[in-house]
Design goal:
With about 250 residues, the chain is an alpha/beta fold. It contains eight helices and twelve strands. The chain has a five-stranded mixed beta sheet. Strand 11, helix 7 and strand 12 form a beta-alpha-beta unit.
Amino acid sequence: MLCGIDLGSRSVKVALMDENKNFKFYKFNTIRFYREHGRTEDGQLVVDLNGLGLDLSSSPVTLVTTGYGRQTVNLKGAKNIPEIKAHVLGASFQTGLKDFTLLDLGGQDSKVALVKGGRLVDFQTNDKCAASTGRYLENMAGVLAIDLEELGRHYQNPVDLTSTCAIFGETELIGKVVEGHPTAHLAAGVNYTIFKRIKPMLVRLLSDHLVFTGGVAYNHAIREILKQELKVPVVVPEHPQFMGAVGCCVSELK
């Protein structure tokens, strides 16, 4: 059995692949994952997989990790692979596409990659600023006093938001609330700012198909904005938040 673990900044995603290439998925809060199921041993992290409640009936288990924590956490007994490689492998496996542009918007970073013939040929990332990530959407939804599902419904008549900073963006949004704009238009404005911030990376690496992954791919409004602005099909694979973990498993098939 293959076990792929994506050590994300907000959540840890786990994918189990059996011999028939069937998947089971699990997600854990990052802090609880380390605090309740991990311990250090000789400078490495040891995770109690059985304590996580994973279905490990088909053993032995091959562990592969990636993600935000890969740079700081060395999981004992696991092979580590680069995050961008894991996401490309997962997206290609789940969609069957070999030529595409990958857009991954996670909890705390954003990635765009150009894939040709199933191979990564170029990529750009933004892990310095949270302004185009799930964390930004969570903060803006909080300002508007709505949940992420409601925020993700609105893309029409967006209020123009110009701040390129997640922190100053909150201040600007509060100002727009005071001006009396409808919540739907404010939510649309928040979603459109995500597109504005990732547009330069997308334009540089755009191809005929866009595969959209990461937790932000659940946002219906951003999917619609991408279709309208880029004029290309937008493919969201099943379980888009688990592409890194899926890619870890797929890396061992080659």
